[in-house]
Amino acid sequence: VIYIITIDEKPYTLHLRKHSFLPQNFLVYSYNETGFLHLESSYFKTHCHYQGYVADIPNSLATLSICSGLRGFLQFENVSYGIEPLESSARFEHIIYQVKNENPDIPLLAENYSNIWQKDQPYKYNLSSQETTLSKLLPQYLEIHIIVEKALMFTQFKLTVMLSSLELWSDKNKISTNGDADDLLQRFFTWKRDYLILRPHDVAFLLIYRKHPTYLGATFPGTICNKNYDADIAMYPDAITLEGFSVIIAQLLGLKMGLTYDDINNCSCPRATCIMNHKAVGSSGIKIFSNCSVHDYRYFVSKFEAKCLQNFSNLQPLYQNQSVCGNGILEPNEDCDCGSQEECQFKKCCDFNTCKLKGSARCGSGPCCTSDCEISVAGTPCRKSIDQECDFTEYCNGTSSNCVPDTYASNGMLCRLGTAYCYNGRCQTADNQCAQIFGEGAQAAPFACFKEINSRIDKFGNCGFKSSQPLSCNQKYVYRK
Predict the structure, then answer these.
(1) What pLDDT sits at residue 115?
(2) What are the contacts of 111-119 at 24+ separation with CB within 8 A?
């Protein structure tokens, strides 16, 4: 993909290529007002993210999302620019602005971190003849689960950072977020050991807004692929830009993979800022890993087993194949599952520790279970319609605490006075689909565009294929593809 943009009256050509750091089945976890965990798969966002360079600008970097307009960063040698759409513009105009990072003068880690870890587990190494060279490394993948309280810099290492899932503490914080980053790290690690055990990830980050933190983060250095230390804390203070925050994440990941801070007298990054430099958080422009960081990483992957980086997993949550008591989902070998002790609304009906019914209770969870542990009478609404024309309200059947299976109108049935079609319980219009894929305000192209493209009878414009050959469109179907 090629874009031409103008900065200070000078045109720049961006060369972009789709960069996959979200798996196709990227998972988003959130909590409703009663504290129940909700899981949603976001399939339609995997095509949005692109990475590339600016033509004729050596070592430049462009990282953009092209959905809902252009959003992202352009990094030149000594300056960075942000780009985002103007919300009030009806002509798809964008604003480009210089990102001015201020050095927050806040250390990344507590002062005792280096002393503790260099004594027990040194991770500043000398190179040996048995090291693995970067050119011999297979592509590697680091899978991250990120939690958010109420950027891709690792290509030098042939390492792709994959965001496996995202959790939003949308109802309340699951742990106390008071205290310094190192206290939070211990608290977060204890929590995640119980609650994230079945979600695939190599490291879990807790991102916290803190107006004036003492430190910017906390990690266990040199412990990647060690499940006893697979947690990190990152603070987002007022003085940090999004570009600066991405450097914080990169530095924490770097420390976890055996990197150390650069000695400015012995480490170099030609025409760029070194990522593992203490002042990188407050700098603008291109950022790369120094020769020292490359040496550290080469030694680390050759000396220690980093097998978790060598798998490209499908990232399916493990609980799809096994029962987990307390997750709020009724699974095999469970009488009921009302969630955790804090979440359970049926404590007198269901034992939240064993997921077994208490006493004479007939049910202990589910939309068709009453507060008296009885199954709701047949005909009680249990799932409201989400679309007046294409979806139906479901009712309890009088024999189960669960709602009956979701039912909806047959796919292809006309709706909106014959101008749209039902699909999976929704009345689908071209405008709605465009808004769903590209963001609010996106609309379908004019009929003339559909007619021109779909009349080409090639792999882009057709009404299906037969024997691998594109089929022409009947006039009445040109707009409905």
Answers:
(1) 38
(2) 113/182, 113/218, 113/221, 117/220, 117/221, 117/222
